[in-house]
Automatic annotation (TrEMBL):
Keywords from the named record: Nucleus
Taxonomic source organism: Musca domestica (House fly)
InterPro entries: ARM-like, ARM-type_fold, INTS4_8HBD, INTS4_C
Protein name per its UniProtKB record: Integrator complex subunit 4
PANTHER family: INTEGRATOR COMPLEX SUBUNIT 4
Location of the Integrator complex subunit 4/Protein SIEL C-terminal Ig-like domain: 819-942
Gene expressing this chain: LOC101889066
GO CC annotation, single: integrator complex
Lineage: Eukaryota, Metazoa, Ecdysozoa, Arthropoda, Hexapoda
Keyword Nucleus appears in the UniProt entry: yes
Domain INTS4 8 helical bundle per the UniProt entry, residue ranges: 613-809
Name of a matching Pfam family: INTS4_8HBD
Domain of life: Eukaryota
Amino acid sequence: MATKRPLSVTETVEIGSQPPHKKIRIQTTKNATSGKLQQALNILETISPQNSKELLDVLVKIADELVLTDCQLPEIHEAVHKLIELFRQERDGDTTIRVMILGLLADLSEVRISEVVNTLIDEIIGVLKYEKSQKVIAQGLSSLHKIGLNNLKILPTMHLTKIAHFAQQQLSSESHHTQKNALMVLASFVALSDAKKGVIDTIGHYADSQDSGVRAQSLRSILCLGERGAVLSPSLYQRAVDAMQDDYECVRQQALQLVLQLGITHPEHMIVCGTAEDDEEMRLIDAAFSKVCGALCDLSIQIRVQAAQHLGEMTMVGSEFLHQTLDKKLMSNLRRKKTAHERGAQLVASGEWSSGKRWADDAPQEHLDAKTISLIASGACGALVHGLEDEFMEVRIATVDSMCKLALKHPDFAVTCLDFLVDMFNDEIEEVRLKAIYSLTAIARHIVLREDQLEIMLSSLEDFSVEVREGLHLMLGACRVSTQACLLMVVQKLLDVLAKYPQDKLSAFGCMRKVGQKHPHLCMAVTSHLLQDHPFFDSAERDVEDPSYLCILILLFNAAASLVPIISLFPDVTLKHYAYLRDAMPSLVPPLPIEGASTKKPIDDLGSTNNSREYLETVLAHINDIFTIPTQERRVPLLKTAQDNLKRLGEIDPEMLGTANFLETFLAAQIQIEQLQSCTTSQHSRAPLKESLAQLVRNCLKLQHIFSGLTYGDMLLVKQICLRASALHLVLVVRDRSQSALGPCQMLLQTASDISNFLDEKQEFQPDALTTDLLNQLASIVDPKPGKVFREILPLVQKPSIVQMPPPNVSIKMCEANILEPCPQMSQDNVIKVTAGLIAALPFVAEIDNLQESQKNDMRIKIKYPDQHLHTVVPKLSDFKKIMTEQGAHETNVKLRTTILLSHSVWTEASSVEIMLCLSVRPGTDLELCKPAKILFAPKPVRRGI
């Protein structure tokens, strides 16, 4: 007899809308914590009301151990009722107990059931109306705020209005804590139609409160209303500006945010600035920009960082104000303002004295009001320069980032700020240098580098940090230089640094490729100089494997792709080298009209996405036709041919790599399930059977963990095929009787539970008949032991059935890796020698495409020695860096840079050690992401004596 599954408190049951299949949630363990809440509430009834300490201890224990998923709906209702009764009993007792009860009631709202939540709101407001303690009322408002936010989607408007109305009544309280919470609740739940009727003015009134927390919350509530969609009036600007002078940092933070929001919302609104005698109108965005610039001189580092970040968001500011941020000279109406001392010195230098011809030319200096004199920069004057010179790196990084954002919107500002960004290359902090390098890369299309700027940039190429050097390679490839001397300076410095850091070879090649593409005419002028081609004498042939010579060839070949006459300047030996490099490096060396060279295109250019999509649809239609063939002997060979076609498509068209490999892996699992299904009725050899099962499980894990960008329909098909594979795995393991079936049984139950939960959440999707039968059969098993589960599912597993192929989804991406260092090809000349038993450190660099953030913790480096001994290295999260491009950081492509340690006992000769990059998807199972890199490793015996 099947046990009845308890109703989860997180579910809502709708009569008449049940899907045709049965919703199932598999439970593999008994619920040991059920009834804990009820037991604790029973203990509360036995405690005397006078014993407040014991009562408080029990409430704290309930709050710490409360697990709502273990509670049933009637239990929740009873808990709410008992806690409210206890609150009423303690009305004249300890306020701490009442505060604790209100906190518990807020925690109970996380069940997200409308009936429970509505009761909670009504009860809490009901008991708070008669409450006298401001501490309890403040906690009640906080609890109402938490309840409302947790259940915003299911709460009716009536209850939200009731909460807002109650909070508005509490604004008249004398307690600052109550006022603060009331403002928070009012801003979150008041109707936006009421906000237009003066609620914003009411909230803004509390910006003049005596308490700093209330002032900050008032401004924060106005911002909250703006985020919800209320229109914030420009009249709030002056209030926000006044609050920026507050003594408390929390108030200034909110005021600064409000100034930014008003400037962005009403950029063209004209406001009056200046004194009553000098009424000057200016745009609100310009005035706000000036005030935010002033905050860069704030005493608080948090305010300065916030102000520096906000400057980058104000891209609609006028150019005159924007350029003034890079000039420290004091301005008045955008004109240089001379000091009294400067004006007097100018008069003396001119030799002019009072002649009586001009009225009052010998009058005394004007009277200055001390309050009008400021010793710091005024408004936007030199604000970004102050940010770049700040003592804290956080402010400097935020300032550089804002300069980049503003320069992207204002090309003329990009030219002005270039020198300032170049100066930041000499910053003492590596993060600041990197931010400046990547910012300059982003705005490179707006600028042309001069020789003096290049000198500072190229001096940073010798930086010890490999990330800085690679960032400079990327930046130099994105920029344009002005003269031949600049180009030669770049090439010579790159070659000098490459000799010092040979590990930068690939990055330098990519830089030379971009430089050649952007400067074909300059390259043509220096071709003979770079190739050392003498006009009369033949020079010696250079080594084509020399990295420095390769850099020059890559530069000139890419320039010749845009300017074909350069080819006429190449000597014969260079043309021969081109033929070799075109085959060896098709991604770095472009096709040129040179006789005898290969004309094949790189793999990137072979396929068109449209043609690949048509071919993919043709292959899938062919597969569906193959499934209709009745005999397995004829069907399987055709399916394997289609599988090879899908694999080849992924190799030809990189855009279709993820889609083609996903379908190929899915089809491989289909073929393996069909072949193994025949083993359920007869006995077969154990070794091939075990190997086939392991391969099937590996393919299922690949479908679940290697691919991203799947639709919900794709996920359902993957879960269905994994369920069949798990069921087949259990049946074959039980039949084999050579290993324990407990693990496969648990895996089957876990897979069934996963797909059942998925179907509960996505009710618009329907599983196929076999999946529904398996889920129903598993749900009916009271004690799911391997033998019993085997007998129940065996008739279903033996049925021949096919899971339909997923539709072509070009958004699917595949996680794969490419090991850059050590070189994947084993070199006979580069042998790592170390004394046996000691350690050799080996640099490891790999690029990983389409790696999700959650998968970084699962990345493993495996080292396989010749004696089949395996060593696993877990890289640190700090070793993963996003790959930078000219458009910015890539979201899912990362570079892993770390050091691995090799050690072993004595070998007779150098032998190969394989290094692989894997994804650990579950204990004992790793999925390889690339082909292994092989190195020669030779542990030498320990030398005895002298």
